[in-house]
Design a protein that fits this description.
about 110 residues; mainly alpha; 4 helices; about 55% helix; elongated
Length: about 110
């Protein structure tokens, strides 16, 4: 049985500094409209003892683990399911789900 492998690459994009090699506009983070740095947000909230952030971080880790398991099994539907779960958790943590509390209280 073959063991699954995981690769993490660290470095500069192939396009060089200031170039958008995949046209996703991630390089333009100064305008305030870009994506939130979720890892930094989790880190800052954990430093202050935020229990919600702790639960979210553990849930995101679980989703990533499940994504790897599903991918190594070739289960595309399972991979997509856990990817969507992880996206929902991140969106909620980043504040995209802030109005849900208001909906539940009124």
């Amino acid at each position: 049985m073959r063991r699954p492998t995981l690769m993490i690459a660290i470095g500069l994009p192939h396009g060089g500094p200031g170039q958008d090699e995949d046209n996703l506009n991630r390089e333009h983070d100064g305008d305030g409209d870009g994506p939130t740095n979720t890892l930094e947000l989790i880190y800052e909230r954990l430093k202050h003892g935020d229990e919600v952030a702790a639960h979210a971080a553990m849930s995101i880790a679980r989703c990533l683990q499940e994504m790897v398991h599903q991918a190594t099994r070739g289960n595309q539907a399972g991979l997509k399911h856990w990817y969507e779960e992880c996206c929902d958790l991140i969106a909620h943590l980043d504040g995209d789900g802030e109005n849900e509390e208001d909906d539940n209280n009124g």
